[in-house]
Amino acid sequence: MKVQVCVDWSEELGECQRTGWIDAADLVHSVSGMSAEDGLKIATAILGLWALAFVARAIAKAIDLR
Q1: 24-32 and 36-65 helices, crossing angle to 10°
Q2: Which residues pair with 6 in a beta bridge?
Q3: Cβ(28)–Cβ(5) under 8 Å?
Q4: Taking the chain, what is the end-to-end CA distance rounded to the nearest angstrom?
Q5: Contact at 8 Å (CB) between 54 and 32?
Q6: What is the DSSP secondary structure assignment for residue 34, as one 8-state letter?
Q7: Contact indicator for 7, 20 with CB cutoff of 8 Å
Q8: Environment class of residue 65 by beta-carbon count within 10 Å: exposed (0-12), middle (13-18) or buried (19+)?
Q9: How far is residue 21's CA from residue 44's CA, in Å, rounded to a whole number?
Q10: Tens of pLDDT along 10-38?
Q11: For the chain, percent of residues with pLDDT exceeding 70
Q12: How many Cα atoms sit within 13 Å of 25 on the Cβ side?
């Protein structure tokens, strides 16, 4: 996926003078120093934990209703 980025920011005018397009995976790598694959692993782990918490909450509600 491509994202639009500001390539030339003017402090005087407070606005972007020139924009460009960059691959989102490259942007993540340049900002965080991690590869897109590492970022995907982290996102997958976070979503997995969220899903586990959602299921645990649903089970707790089901037990409480009985």
Answers
A1: 90
A2: 19
A3: no
A4: 48
A5: no
A6: -
A7: yes
A8: exposed
A9: 26
A10: 888 888 888 888 877 666 566 566 676 77
A11: 79
A12: 6
